[in-house]
């Protein structure tokens, strides 16, 4: 609530100073609205702390509704003003200019005045009621500080799992068959317990055990959750999200496990239909003897249906192990303070947690993050916990405490996660972009951008144990996370009427619904779509849910295009060859996700009219051929991963100076006129950048020699530089006895290429190109693929933050820079299909490179083995 009130105040303040407020004679209305909203905002904290009062709860719902309407109106006026500025600078746009003629301007101003006065009256009425409800003023909240050392990681550390040693030993004995006689090809071990006891954590701990990893040839993990869909489970097992039929999925699964000893974890199974289990079981019986399946479930019936071993029933932790876990979460470094009274209070709190690890972690995180002292802990125990003792569902009530103690700006971010299904893997960057699009991120008083503040919000929620199961990339950054099922239930409980999830049944979707997600085809019978004022509409398509109807965009487009207030539109996995040009009417749109559309060929030209668009996601649009040339200047994130048919980047891309995400940059290899200059001014790029078809620069190598287009991109962390030498690859494949995957006999070919290159100086051109592509010294991961130079530039030895260096398919490369031996940060060096380099290293001092401190050397080529054996 505070977030939307803050946005309205900002917009009112901005609008009151605009010339258009004067033209439309609305300046006084804007100032009075600002005063009213400010007075209401001051009592919000008190109101939200008393939502158990029905009158206050209804007052908040009314307030929320009018604030959303006010925000929509103010932003619409801002968009109209922006269009007027654009038209003023472009005399050609005759038709648009007519709209701003005196008569239309008067009509529009009259309508705005009417709408503003209607909203002002609603706000005045609400402001009067706050006096009746006796709401008091509270100071403005400030963001809680994120503590760097509280960061968690994707793997389950032995130090983080308390009190499950015996359960782990028993489960390992089943998997490694030290206690059982194996009679079936595939055995099933169920882990049973209610939510929060740590079933998934125990399975993760054993799954990642070194002995278990070595024992099984195939390891697979599938989160099943509510829907036991055999095709979807099989696709997750083979890691294939393509739209293929069930028969092909089954065959691919059989091919993957045939004769292999595999370990499969089916996490969070609810299905009690034995027939469905038998159908899935028939698909996996072709694994070799000793294959194992771990099933985590809350249901004893599921365990009885699926298990071939006695279930492993999890109980709560005893008091001492509970205290050990609590100390780890509540105190710095898990070290108990010297305050005996505080420790005594803490032990009383732990007793009330009933040995449930999720509860202990959540409460410990809450007490830690708020820096509470002895008196606060005592109040927490005697007042807040005493309320919980009177409730039926104590576990859920305790979890809600962690939500109640969040500041309002984090409550919005947490509640937004309810729109996604249980078991959903959140992409950290995407989640932050969604929060920004919806205005949930407060402006920072320092120089940080919204993405940086959003990262702080994310880390706060993570430190409160509201996110878990994070994954980490090679640069040490969090990429994804999940929510525990109980935490997801909590998120769905705390959202108001403005959130709705459509799942094919009769849902409570009313005129106050602002955030809607659909996990099935959306059919709202006998309801006018214009009666909705949605700000977010999310459809997660066929590749996640297996519904054929979800794969058809036709079901959703008429509804989508009627929602003129949309800020966020996600149409993931909906196959459709064209997007209507009328999408340009969604003027408020800030976040558009069309990913995994396997039929989309071109974007509509109207997409360039979305002047507020910040994020455009087109990953896995395999048939997308080009992007519009006049792409939006407001874009900050443009995702193009796996757009295989894309041949070049649009003209004018270099003008997008706010662009932070551009994982793929494609040089025009068909015209052989690649242009790096578009990258020159994009110095805000972050994360990963992959540049493809660098061989297209060979014709102009001398012209790009001094470009240095990457040197000032200090926020980039990963750089992938790729050449595509198709002639060389074809020569490799034509060698008698050669293999396109393992080039065991490539050394003669490399020598032949060296001789050929003496004539056309390809190696010299590539060396000039690579020298130009020197990144900022802060780069952490560097990939060089298909490069035909003889040596690497010296700047590689000066990348002081480099963690990972991968060199592949560089068949004429002879040596590594001498400076690489002085790298103190380097942790991984991969050399793949570089025959001359591998031979040189093996014969002339490979050990000098292999012994670089802290470096794991991974030479994958089979040819390398014959050199060092």
UniProtKB/TrEMBL annotation:
Domain Disease resistance N-terminal: 6-91
Domain spans labelled Disease resistance protein winged helix: 419-491
Positions of transmembrane segments: none
Matching InterPro entries: Apaf_helical (IPR042197), LRR_dom_sf (IPR032675), LRR_R13L1-DRL21 (IPR056789), NB-ARC (IPR002182), P-loop_NTPase (IPR027417), Rx_N (IPR041118), WH-like_DNA-bd_sf (IPR036388), WHD_DRP (IPR058922)
GO biological process: defense response; response to other organism
The keyword ATP-binding appears for this protein: yes
A GO MF term: ATP binding
Every R13L1/DRL21-like LRR repeat region domain range: 676-834
Protein name: Disease resistance protein RGA3
Protein species of origin: Psophocarpus tetragonolobus
């Amino acid at each position: 609530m505070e977030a939307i009130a803050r946005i309205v105040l900002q917009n009112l303040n901005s609008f009151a100073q605009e010339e258009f407020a004067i033209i439309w004679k609305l300046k006084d209305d804007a100032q009075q609205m600002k005063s009213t909203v400010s007075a209401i905002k001051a009592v919000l904290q008190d109101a939200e702390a008393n939502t158990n009062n029905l009158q206050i709860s209804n007052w908040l719902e009314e307030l929320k509704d009018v604030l959303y309407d006010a925000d929509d109106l103010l932003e619409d006026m801002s968009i109209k003003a922006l269009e007027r500025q654009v038209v003023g600078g472009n005399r050609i746009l005759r038709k648009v200019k007519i709209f701003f003629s005196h008569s239309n301007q008067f009509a529009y101003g009259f309508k705005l005045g009417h709408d503003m006065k209607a909203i002002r009256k609603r706000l005045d009425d609400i402001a009067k009621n706050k006096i009746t409800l006796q709401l008091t003023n509270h100071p403005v909240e400030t963001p809680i500080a994120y503590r760097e050392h509280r960061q968690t990681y994707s793997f389950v550390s032995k130090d983080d799992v308390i009190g499950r040693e015996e359960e782990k030993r028993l489960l390992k004995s089943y998997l490694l068959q030290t206690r059982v006689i194996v009679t079936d090809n595939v055995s099933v071990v169920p882990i049973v317990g209610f939510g929060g006891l740590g079933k998934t954590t125990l399975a993760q701990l054993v799954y990642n055990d070194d002995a278990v990893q070595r024992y099984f040839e195939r390891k697979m993990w599938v989160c099943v959750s509510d829907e036991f869909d055999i095709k979807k489970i099989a696709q997750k097992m083979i890691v294939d999200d393509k739209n293929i039929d069930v028969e092909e999925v089954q065959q691919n699964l059989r091919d993957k496990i045939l004769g292999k000893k595999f370990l499969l974890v089916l996490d969070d199974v609810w299905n009690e239909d034995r027939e469905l289990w038998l159908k899935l079981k028939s698909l996996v019986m072709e694994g070799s003897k000793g294959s194992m399946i771990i099933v985590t479930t809350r249901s004893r019936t599921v365990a009885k249906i699926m298990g071939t071993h006695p279930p492993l029933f999890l109980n709560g932790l005893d008091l001492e192990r509970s205290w050990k876990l609590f100390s780890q979460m509540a105190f710095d470094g898990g070290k108990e303070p010297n305050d005996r009274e505080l420790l005594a209070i803490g032990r009383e709190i732990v007793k009330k947690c009933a040995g449930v690890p999720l509860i202990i972690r959540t409460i410990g995180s809450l007490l830690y993050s708020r820096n509470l002292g002895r008196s606060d802990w005592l109040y927490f125990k005697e007042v807040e916990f005493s309320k919980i003792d009177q409730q039926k569902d104590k576990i859920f009530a305790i979890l809600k405490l962690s939500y109640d103690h969040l500041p309002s700006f984090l409550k919005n971010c947490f509640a937004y996660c309810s729109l996604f299904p249980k078991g959903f893997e959140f992409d950290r960057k995407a989640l932050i972009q969604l929060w920004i699009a919806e205005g949930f991120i407060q402006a920072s008083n320092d120089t940080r951008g919204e993405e940086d503040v959003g990262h702080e919000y994310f880390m706060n929620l993570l430190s409160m144990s509201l996110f878990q199961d994070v994954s980490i990339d090679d640069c040490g950054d969090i990429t994804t996370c999940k929510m525990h099922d109980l935490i997801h239930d909590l998120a769905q409980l705390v959202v108001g009427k403005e959130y709705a999830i459509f799942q094919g049944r009769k849902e409570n979707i009313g005129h106050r619904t602002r955030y809607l997600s659909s996990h099935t085809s959306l059919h709202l019978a006998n309801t006018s779509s214009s009666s909705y004022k949605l700000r977010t509409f999310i459809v997660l398509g066929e590749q996640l849910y297996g519904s054929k109807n979800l794969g058809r965009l036709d079901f959703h487009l008429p509804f989508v295009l009627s929602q003129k207030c949309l800020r966020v539109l996600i149409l993931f996995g909906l196959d459709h060859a064209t997007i209507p040009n009328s999408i340009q009417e969604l003027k408020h749109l800030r976040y558009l996700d069309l990913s995994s559309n396997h039929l989309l060929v071109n974007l509509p030209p109207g997409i360039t009219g979305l002047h507020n668009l910040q994020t455009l996601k087109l990953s896995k649009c395999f048939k997308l051929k080009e992007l519009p040339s006049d792409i939006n200047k407001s874009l900050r994130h443009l995702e193009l991963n796996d757009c295989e048919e894309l041949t070049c980047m649009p003209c004018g891309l270099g003008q997008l100076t706010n662009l932070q995400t551009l994982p793929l940059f494609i040089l025009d290899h068909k015209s052989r006129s690649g242009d790096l200059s578009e990258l020159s001014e994009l110095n805000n790029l972050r994360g990963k950048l992959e540049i493809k078809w660098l061989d297209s620069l060979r014709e102009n190598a001398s012209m790009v020699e001094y470009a240095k287009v990457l040197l000032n991109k200090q926020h980039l962390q990963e750089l992938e530089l790729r050449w595509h030498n198709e002639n060389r690859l074809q020569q490799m494949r034509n060698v008698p006895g050669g293999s396109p995957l393992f080039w065991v006999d490539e050394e003669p070919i490399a020598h032949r290429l060296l001789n050929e290159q003496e004539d056309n100086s390809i190696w010299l051109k590539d060396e000039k190109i690579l020298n130009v592509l020197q990144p900022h010294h802060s780069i952490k991961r560097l990939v060089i693929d298909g490069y035909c130079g003889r040596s690497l530039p010296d700047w590689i030895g000066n990348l002081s933050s480099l963690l990972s260096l991968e060199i592949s398919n560089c068949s004429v490369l002879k040596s590594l820079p001498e400076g690489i031996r002085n790298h103190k940060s380097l942790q991984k060096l991969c050399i793949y299909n570089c025959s001359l380099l591998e031979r040189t290293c093996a014969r002339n001092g490979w050990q000098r490179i292999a012994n670089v401190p802290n470096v794991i050397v991974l030479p994958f080529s089979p040819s390398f083995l014959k050199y060092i054996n």
